[in-house]
Structure formats: C-alpha cells, structure tokens
Known about the structure:
Elements: E1 2-7, H1 12-26, E2 33-38, E3 49-54, E4 61-63, E5 70-76, H2 81-101, E6 105-111, H3 116-126, E7 132-135, H4 141-144, E8 152-156, E9 162-166, H5 174-182, H6 213-233, H7 235-241, E10 246-258, E11 263-276, H8 278-291, E12 297-304
Parallel strand pairs: 1-2, 5-6, 6-7, 11-12
Antiparallel strand pairs: 3-4, 3-7, 5-8, 8-9, 10-11
Helix pairs in contact: 7-8
Amino acid sequence: MTVKGSLGPDCKDQVEAFKADGAKEVGTVEGLKMDVNIQLGAGCQYDTIKDIVPIAGGDPVNLEHKEGEVWLVDFWATWCPPCQKPMAHNEEMLKKREGDWAGKVRIIGISIDQTREAVAKHVETKDWKRPEHYWRAKSDCSDQYKVSGVPNVMLIDTKGKIVFKGHPASRPDLEKDFDDLLAGKEITGKGTAATKPAETEDSSSAPASKLDPATCLAAIDEFASTVGPALQKDEKIKEAAKGMPRAFCVMVYEETYDPRSQTSSVDWKNYRVLVGKQDAINSCKEVIEANVKGDYEVVLREQAF
Length: 305
C-alpha cells in the first residue's frame, strides 16, 4: 500500500507534520510506503540538503546556501556513463575560472553510489579535485528534489532560487550561465520554467471500477496457491520452458482509493511473457490459456526467435 502526494513548497510545514505523524501511526506496517513530498524545482527556493557525507569521510553535513553564491548541484554516479562528461566539464570550468569565481561559484557533486569509497576512488583516479564531492549516503535529497535518474543538475542563483533543474545537456553554456547569474541576470530555456505542483485528479466524477476488489483478491489468492503451482508442475510447460530465456505468467494488482469520493479504482493485469522458439511459445500459451481465466486484462508479450 502506498500513500502518495506531491504538494507545493508553501505546504512544507504541513507535509513534514503529516509525515512525522504518519510514521508514528503506521509504525512498521509491512508493505506500507509513505510517499508524500514537496515538489521542488525551477522557481522554488532551495531547500537545504541534509545528511550527505564528504567523500573523504567524516560526519554527515548539511548544504546551506549562502546569499551571493551561485551553485551547480550535480546528482551523478560513477557507474553512469552519461554522468562522466558533465563532471569532467565541471572540473574544466573551475580550473579555467578559479581566479574570478573563487568564493562566488560552487559546483557540488552528490553521488548516488552504493559506497563512499567507490566515489572517492573514482574522483581520485579522474583527478576531479575542484568540484566539491559528497556521497548521498542516507540523505533523502533524491526524494526531496525528485531525482529519479542521473545525471540531474540544479542551478541556484545568488538569492537561493532554483533557476534550472534537469539534464546538464539542456544547458550548453554553463560557464555563461554562471556569469549571467552572478551579474543578476535571468537565464531562459528548457528546465527554467517555474515548477507547478502536480495536479491531483478529481476522481469524484470518475466512474467507479467495475472490478470488485474482494473478488479480485480472492482470485489472486487462488492463483498463488493453486493455479500458479499447477502451471509450474505441468509437464508440457516444463518441457517447453527448458530452452526459453523468459517464460512467466504473473498477476499484478493495483487499487487506488480516493477518500473524497470514497471509491476505489482497480487495475488488474495478467502478464504473460514468453521468449523463445515459436513452438515452445505456442505450447506455453495453450496451457496458460486453458488454465488461467478471470476478469483481468491479459498483457501478452511474446518474442520468437
């Protein structure tokens, strides 16, 4: 079960209170995820990133913006090929402009690697000593800034406002961006438009799902306890699946409850993924179609070779 929502920065106090109260209420309920956050992006004030660790080691630190400074915060990873060129460019820019940018421009790398040691070794090997390097560790900064993939960068102006968020390739002349922001100028282009809070769908007028959750769950229980194991033991499928790279049949059930309309919307799918020789695929399909029946949507993905 997931409780989720995305609100604007003006709701920060309410969201933090909700998350704190929610954590107390649900305790350690297995399978429950709280995903309620503030949506921060271009046009928002920078919100302090907390609990990141310097790659040299030591205690976690917080990144607090100081008025007058222009920042580039670069979320990246050592194992990410597209991250390497932007990080190398960060090093080049600081080397070139260290005389007139000193004390004014900060380029901050936050690695999402599994270990601090991996980041430290990579940075040392590449000799990227001018940017400031941190390891994300247990910080929630990726959720805080909705970083779902890397590389992902943010530009922050002298007043602490996020003026760009996105892929570094969207800013072909970062050196000019820094100079413009130091001069108090605005930058334009993709990723600079003010972020709008995600709109919540008004499901009060949406038709209720035709699927009954209790009926669906009972059928899924039967599939898990009886139908599925029978498929795994079926001699025809066992023989066909021996040479197939992928052969599986799974149920995926998702229920969304809207407290305003007090209705549930059910999405129930049966995925049948079959990859291999056509004869083997046909054999598996025949058995599955004969034994797996219900009101779900069948998603058939087959690839013959």
